[in-house]
Amino acid sequence: MFYRPQDGHGLPHNPFNAIVTPRPIGWISTRGSEGDNIAPYSFFNAVAYVPPQVMFSSTTAKDSLANIRETEVFCVNVVSEALKEVMNASSAALPRNVDEFAHVGIEKAECETINAPRVANAPAALECKLTQILELPGEANFAVFGEVTGVHLRDDCIRDGIFDVLSFNPVSRLGYRDFSTVRELFSLSRPGE
User: How distant, in Å, are the alpha carbons of 22, 87, 100, 173, 181 from that of 178?
Assistant: First the structure.
């Protein structure tokens, strides 16, 4: 099968969502003049080591984007298997002044380097200072980039000096309504290592 996106695919659901998988979930927490917000984004990833930088993409003008424009900071919370249901519940479209943390019962904590909340029991949280927002082609597509200014790691997720993803089983987005949990690892050495 071949299709040009502008011509449509002819399938019951858009296959693009299922092609680029698995995608980590950036559970973005922000604070704005109307309160605290948290929402999951499956277009998320790390983009640089030094300084450490991340990005996420918003395909609608959501509250997260408005808060980041206002404050120029955000926090990325890692989603563990234990948090998958509450993460999903936080994706509900709620009025801007509703605190999603309180609405879905997520315990929050304050960040150290930025004025924003974070998920208290997330395996990891990345405090970020906005570096740029790029408007992408389309009706409401934005890529948000941030420099990591602080990193929280839950102590029980560090084993033998390594942040052990099998200690919390991160959740990733596949296509459609499908998600996956990391349950096994394998290692590969690069040629010449």
Answer: 10, 14, 23, 6, 11
